[in-house]
Every structure is written in structure tokens, then in C-alpha cells.
Specification:
Shape: elongated
CATH superfamily of the largest domain: SPOUT methyltransferase, trefoil knot domain
Number of strands: 9
CATH topology of the largest domain: Alpha/beta knot
Bound molecules: adenine
Distance between the termini: 30 Å
Number of helices: 7
Structural class: alpha/beta
Largest sheet: 5 strands, parallel
Mean pLDDT: 95
Radius of gyration: 22 Å
Helix content: 25-40%
CATH class of the largest domain: Alpha Beta
Strand order of the largest sheet: 2-1-6-5-7
């Protein structure tokens, strides 16, 4: 997979890809991340990427020209499966979306700033709009990092057996069951006996029941899906 990230603040986005699972995925060449600074695609002296909104009102708008230049130069090199715009008014990111995107080849992610982008960018270039939740961030960069993390860890070969995504919360619309590690007793607080029994079929049944219990307590909405 290849992900091209278009941003005015590439420095805000670098560190998530320089550690742990994402770093290893890049090293193993299971994913390549390319940052494109929108200011490199401006034609004006001040490298200006935003301007006042027509009709008046507070907040600047990202201009179409540098975004067009950047996206068009990328599209001239290769075909893209999706051109994603990170925005609070997009579809809310779910595990289903992450699963789906993890099967794609080439993605572009555009990070919004200020009030957002000129609507014509959304109308003519963007194929998908994604939000990471009903709250507003100062820009799309942190949202893009969340999307990339959720997607990349699902690419086959990125996670080892021990870190397998199959037992994650949401993978089957259920939250994951409680987990424990050594010691088996701490300050009198005990690990459930069943987990120490070595009886794998029984442990599986217990985990399934705990998943259901946890989901109905914390996220009953998931059980309606
Ligand atoms: N940009 C600002 N807020 C955002 C959000 N919640 N999701 C995606 N992009 C954003």
C-alpha cells in the first residue's frame, strides 16, 4: 500500500510513523508513506494556501489551486483507489471502514485546515470524506494519523500472531473481553480462575460471554448492528 498525505504541516504528522508498529510496517515495505507540503504547490510569492471566504465570515478557506496541482501531479504518476478528505462532517471512521481501506493499493489523504477547503475541491477531487469523531480538531493531521494507524495495522503481515487484529474490539461488533497477565494475585486481587485452568474451549466460552456482557453494558448500540 502507498499513502500520499497532503498537508500544510507535515511536521505534525511525522512521529506516528517513526515508532512501533507503523515504523515496522514501513521498514518491511508493507506500506509507503509520502508527505506533500501544500506550500510547495503554490504559485504566489508568499506560498499562501488559504484566503478569505466569499460572502464574508470568520475563518480562512484553503484554496483550490495548490490542492489541484498536488493531487493532479500525483494522479499523473499512478491510479488512486480513494482520495480522502479528513473533515468533521465526513462519515465517522469505523472498524469496517478501516478493514475496507486496508485492502486498497494507493490512497491520497488530504488534511484540512482553517475553516476547511473550497467546496469545489470536495466536489471534483475527493472520493471519500472521513471524520474521526464528533469533535473539531485544529486540523486534519491528527485525524489522518488515526486513520493511517487504524488501516495500516490491518494490512496482512503488519501484525504478528501475538498482536493479531482478529481479537480486537469491534472486529465482530463486540468489545474485547477483560485481559490479565502475571501475577495471578496482586494485593489480594485475583485473576478469574478459568483463565488459569488451561482449558482452552472453556476459556473461549468465558471470553465470548464476557465480550457480550461488556458490550451490552458499555456499548449496547453495537449489538443492534
Ligand atoms: N478535522 C478537524 N476535525 C476533524 C475530525 N473530527 N475528523 C476528521 N478531520 C478533522
Amino acid at each position: 500500500m502507498r499513502i500520499d498525505i497532503i498537508t500544510v504541516l507535515p511536521e505534525l504528522l511525522q512521529s506516528p510513523f517513526e515508532a512501533s508498529i507503523l515504523k515496522r510496517a514501513i521498514e518491511k515495505e508493507l506500506v509507503a508513506i509520502h508527505f506533500h507540503n501544500l506550500r510547495d504547490y503554490t504559485s504566489n510569492k508568499y506560498k499562501q494556501v488559504d484566503d478569505y471566504q466569499f460572502g464574508g465570515g470568520a475563518g480562512m478557506v484553503m484554496m483550490i489551486e495548490p490542492i489541484d496541482k498536488c493531487i493532479s501531479s500525483l494522479k499523473a504518476e499512478r491510479a488512486y483507489d480513494e482520495i480522502i478528505y479528513m473533515t468533521p462532517d465526513g462519515e465517522t471512521l469505523t472498524q469496517t471502514t478501516a478493514n475496507e481501506l486496508s485492502l486498497k493499493g494507493n490512497l491520497i489523504i488530504l488534511c484540512g485546515h482553517y475553516k476547511g477547503v473550497d467546496q469545489r475541491v470536495r466536489d471534483h477531487f475527493i472520493t471519500r470524506e472521513i471524520s474521526v469523531g464528533d469533535y473539531v480538531l485544529s486540523g486534519g493531521e491528527l485525524a489522518a494519523a488515526i486513520l493511517c494507524d487504524a488501516v495500516i495495522r490491518l494490512i496482512p503481515g503488519v501484525l504478528s500472531n501475538e498482536t493479531s487484529a482478529l481479537t480486537d474490539s469491534f472486529q465482530d461488533n463486540l468489545l474485547a473481553p477483560p485481559i490479565y497477565t502475571r501475577p495471578a494475585e496482586y494485593k489480594g486481587w485475583k485473576v478469574p480462575e478459568i483463565l488459569l485452568s488451561g482449558n482452552t474451549p472453556k476459556i473461549d466460552v468465558w471470553r465470548e460471554a464476557e465480550s457480550l456482557k461488556r458490550t451490552s453494558e458499555k456499548r449496547p448500540d453495537l449489538l443492534d448492528k
